[in-house]
């Protein structure tokens, strides 16, 4: 039984906030395959193309036949706990602060034995479900979980240290006018968020979500991501209380370069989608990075909502996608800039949404509830990249197979 | 000749002539006109630090500004509207500077606007005003006082499902002011020279349409018109000299008689 987490007590203003520390971060190029799989929530290991052996730990050659071709393949995440122990002392500052820490070895059904972190609810010599998760160094590690859900399972200290769980955390949605803001707020509150705040640009205009958010108990605060002073003002107020930031601000209009005439709309898109992210990062980033070791409601994640066509453009929303491609590139820089703090940047990619601006497009489209679910499950899984909905998952798969072919297909679709 | 200028300077110094500011502060939160979202939009006022006595520039602080020609208290030139696109000297950089200083009259519609968000300035109201203050002289600025500038936030645009609601002139009032009174320009305390529901007149946006078609000027987002006398004040409204500009944010000042000493 996991002890349930209790809400964090009010902060003692005389006690220094602990600085973030990290588990060991260096990995070989081969081992980064584990991290890449963990970042998207897959359980994958090297599988020899020559002899079919599944191998762990990752190496540059097959441990059975010395074959060099070792593609990463999804394998069954099940196995049996062989041995386990609880570490009570360590020279590593990160683990010293988190003792005791349970580790063990697991015989995978797919073959190899892996050394892994072990959830507190796993019984000795029992069946386990393995998850590849990112640790606070942003590296892929394996965590053994009980095969069935247990009470307060997510509150286990090892799982909590790796996830970005919204439970008991305070969350800022940067724009309450996003058509899905009420759905996102509701899902986060149902997942146990301690508080949800939502930014409101241009309070002199009606806000169609104001009543729905108010009914959920969301605090609406002035925030306009195109106004540096506004972003700084709210960061001054809430920067130290924002544990998860979900950037719902966006400026979305259809059309590519030729449909537009001039750069006015493109400038607005860049101002919100790219520079808005930069302003938010400059104002909220340092405060959040300084609070990643601040107890139960530590700062944990930064969520960007991006169109999947930021990865490969499609001309029907060509200018918008281009601005979001810039945001995607900035998010990669932010990952590196936030890395030493352990603050995780989760990019959620989706296809067209079920809302006004995508109204003429055919289904499938992503609903507010589906997007909200994907945010919550992505945070609970501690993911870096989430592909929400059929369009996003399909394009991601095509990009894995052959990016140039994916580009050509999108070009044909645009001309059809 | 220069004697009167010297006297004016001295009367400003003594308070016999007062200088009144009719301008809103350029503020990122100040409303701008809103069009349907598929149209291009008016840029809000924004200010980004270049440096502030720091590593970006140790001894100085300065900002880059971004805004529209039609952000904040601003001047509309004839070329702003399609009816005025072929008017000679229709851009702000071409307008004769003499027109930037001149007489102004103020028609007080504050009570009507307080009772009705869609209050209309009509020819009847203008002629009734003239019966008390005399006929509007030619080449004069006419300002419509509504005290709308005392509103802020959502109450300023007063946006509803069917669009914004704020007072303004009828097409007949604009024709009367231009054809019968030959005014220099027309100014309001609301976000535009037209009423919030001005799109539903014929022609749509009659103040813009008739003023600029006749080569006249507009001023909007003025504030504090309650400080002005109905007649006898002088308006100073010089737009920035923007090449090909259709309008400009500006500092609008009025000279009014001071307290008798």
Chain-wise SSE layout:
The complex is a heterodimer of chains A (416) and B (261).
Chain A: H1 32-39, E1 44-47, E2 54-55, E3 72-74, E4 78-87, H2 93-96, E5 101-108, E6 113-118, E7 127-134, E8 140-145, H3 157-162, E9 170-173, H4 181-190, E10 195-200, H5 210-215, E11 219-222, H6 228-238, E12 244-247, H7 257-260, H8 264-289, E13 301-307, H9 318-338, E14 344-350, H10 368-380, E15 385-388, H11 390-401, H12 403-415
Parallel strand pairs in A: 6-8, 9-10, 9-12, 10-11, 12-13, 13-14, 14-15
Antiparallel strand pairs in A: 1-2, 1-3, 4-5, 4-7, 5-6, 7-8
Chain B: H1 2-14, E1 17-21, E2 46-54, E3 57-66, E4 74-76, E5 101-108, H2 110-115, E6 120-121, H3 123-133, E7 141-145, H4 154-157, E8 159-160, E9 163-164, E10 168-169, H5 171-180, E11 185-188, H6 206-213, E12 217-220, E13 233-237, E14 247-249, E15 252-257
Parallel strand pairs in B: 5-7, 6-10, 7-11, 11-12
Antiparallel strand pairs in B: 1-15, 2-3, 4-12, 4-14, 5-13, 8-9, 13-15
Helix pairs in contact in B: 5-6
Counting DSSP E segments of at least 2 residues, the number of strands of chain A comes to: 15
Number of helices of chain A: 12
N-to-C span of chain B: 25 Å
Approximately how much helix is present in the residues of chain A?
25-40%
User: What number is the mean pLDDT of chain B?
Assistant: 96
What is the number of E strands of chain B?
15
Mean pLDDT of chain A: 96
Total count of helical runs of at least 4 residues of chain B: 6
> What is the first-to-last residue Cα distance of chain A?
57 Å
Question: What would your notes on this structure say?
Answer:
The complex is a heterodimer of chains A (416) and B (261). Chain A is an alpha/beta fold and 416 residues long. Chain A is built from twelve helices and 15 strands. Chain A has helices at 32-39, 93-96, 157-162, 181-190, 210-215, 228-238, 257-260, 264-289, 318-338, 368-380, 390-401, 403-415, and strands at residues 44-47, 54-55, 72-74, 78-87, 101-108, 113-118, 127-134, 140-145, 170-173, 195-200, 219-222, 244-247, 301-307, 344-350, 385-388. In chain A, the strands form three sheets. In chain A, strands 11-10-9-12-13-14-15 form a seven-stranded parallel β-sheet, with helices on both faces. In chain A, α9 links the parallel β13 (301-307) and β14. In chain A, α6 (228-238) packs parallel to α8 (264-289) and α8 packs parallel to α9 (318-338). Chain A is globular. In chain A, 44% of the residues are buried. By secondary structure, chain B is of the alpha/beta class. Helices cover 20% and strands 27% of the residues of chain B. Chain B has a nine-stranded mixed β-sheet with strand order 1-15-13-5-7-11-12-4-14. Chain B has a two-stranded antiparallel ribbon with strand order 2-3. Chain B has a two-stranded parallel ribbon with strand order 6-10. In chain B, α5 (171-180) runs parallel beside α6 (206-213). The longest helix of chain B is centred in the first third of the chain and has 13 residues, at 2-14. Chain B starts with a helix and ends with a strand. The model of chain B has no long low-confidence stretch (mean pLDDT 96). At the A-B interface, α6 and α8 of A face β2, α4 and β8 of B.
């Amino acid at each position: 039984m996991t002890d349930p987490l209790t809400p964090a007590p009010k902060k003692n203003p005389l006690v220094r906030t602990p600085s973030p520390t990290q588990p060991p971060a260096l990995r070989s190029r081969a081992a980064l395959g584990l991290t890449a799989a963990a970042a998207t929530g897959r359980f994958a290991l090297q599988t020899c193309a020559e002899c079919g052996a599944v191998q762990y730990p990752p190496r540059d050659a097959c441990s059975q036949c010395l074959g060099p071709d070792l593609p990463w393949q999804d394998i069954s995440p099940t196995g049996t706990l062989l041995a386990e122990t609880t570490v009570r002392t360590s020279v590593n500052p990160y683990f010293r602060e988190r003792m005791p820490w349970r580790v063990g070895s697991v015989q995978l059904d797919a073959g190899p034995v892996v050394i892994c972190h072990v959830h507190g609810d796993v019984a000795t010599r029992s069946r386990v479900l393995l998850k590849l998760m990112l640790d606070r160094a942003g590296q892929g590690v394996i965590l053994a979980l009980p095969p069935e859900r247990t009470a307060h399972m997510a509150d286990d200290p090892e799982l909590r240290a790796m996830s970005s769980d919204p439970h008991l955390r305070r969350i800022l949605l940067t724009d309450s006018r996003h058509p899905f803001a009420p759905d996102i707020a509701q899902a986060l509150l149902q997942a146990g968020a301690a508080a949800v705040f939502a930014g409101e640009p241009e309070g002199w205009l009606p806000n169609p979500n104001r009543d729905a958010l108010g009914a959920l108990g969301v605090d609406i605060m002035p925030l306009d991501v195109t106004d540096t002073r506004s972003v700084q003002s709210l960061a001054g107020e809430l920067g130290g209380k924002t544990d998860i930031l979900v950037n719902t601000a966006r400026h979305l209009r259809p059309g590519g370069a030729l449909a537009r005439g001039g750069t006015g709309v493109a400038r607005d898109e860049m101002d919100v989608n790219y520079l808005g992210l930069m302003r938010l990062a400059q104002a909220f980033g340092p405060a959040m990075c300084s609070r990643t070791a601040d107890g139960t409601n530590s700062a944990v994640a930064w969520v960007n909502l991006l169109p999947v066509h930021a990865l490969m453009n499609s001309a029907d929303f060509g200018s918008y996608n281009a601005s979001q491609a810039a945001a995607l590139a900035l998010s990669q820089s932010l990952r590196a800039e936030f890395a030493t703090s352990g603050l995780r940047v989760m990019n959620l990619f989706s296809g067209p949404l079920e809302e006004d601006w995508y109204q003429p497009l055919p289904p499938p489209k992503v609903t507010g509830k589906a997007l909200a679910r994907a945010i919550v499950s992505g945070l609970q899984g501690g993911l870096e990249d989430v592909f929400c909905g059929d369009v996003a998952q399909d394009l991601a798969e095509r990009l894995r197979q052959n990016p140039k072919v994916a580009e050509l297909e999108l070009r044909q679709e645009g001309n059809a | 000749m220069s004697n009167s200028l010297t006297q004016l300077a001295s009367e400003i110094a003594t308070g016999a002539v007062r200088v009144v500011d009719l301008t809103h502060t350029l503020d990122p939160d100040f409303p701008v006109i809103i069009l349907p979202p598929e149209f291009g939009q008016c840029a809000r006022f924004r200010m980004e630090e270049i440096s502030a006595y720091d590593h970006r520039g140790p001894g100085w602080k300065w900002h880059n500004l971004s805004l529209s020609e039609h952000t904040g208290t601003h001047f509309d030139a004839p070329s702003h509207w399609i009816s005025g696109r072929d008017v000679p000297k229709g851009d702000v950089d071409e307008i004769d500077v003499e027109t930037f200083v001149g007489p102004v009259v103020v028609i007080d519609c504050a009570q009507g606007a307080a009772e009705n968000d869609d209050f209309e300035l009509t020819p009847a109201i203008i002629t009734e005003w003239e019966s008390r203050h005399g006929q509007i002289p030619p080449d004069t600025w006419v300002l419509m006082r509504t005290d709308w500038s005392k509103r802020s936030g959502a109450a300023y645009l007063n946006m509803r499902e069917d669009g914004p609601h704020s007072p303004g002139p009828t097409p007949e009032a604009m024709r009367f002011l231009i054809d019968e009174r030959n005014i220099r320009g027309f100014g309001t305390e609301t976000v535009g020279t037209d009423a919030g529901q001005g799109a539903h007149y014929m022609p749509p946006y009659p103040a813009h349409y008739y003023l600029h078609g006749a080569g006249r000027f507009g001023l909007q987002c003025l504030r504090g018109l309650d400080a002005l006398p109905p007649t006898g004040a002088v308006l100073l409204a010089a737009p920035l000299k923007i090449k090909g500009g259709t309008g400009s944010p500006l500092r609008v000042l009025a000279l009014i008689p001071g307290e008798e000493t």
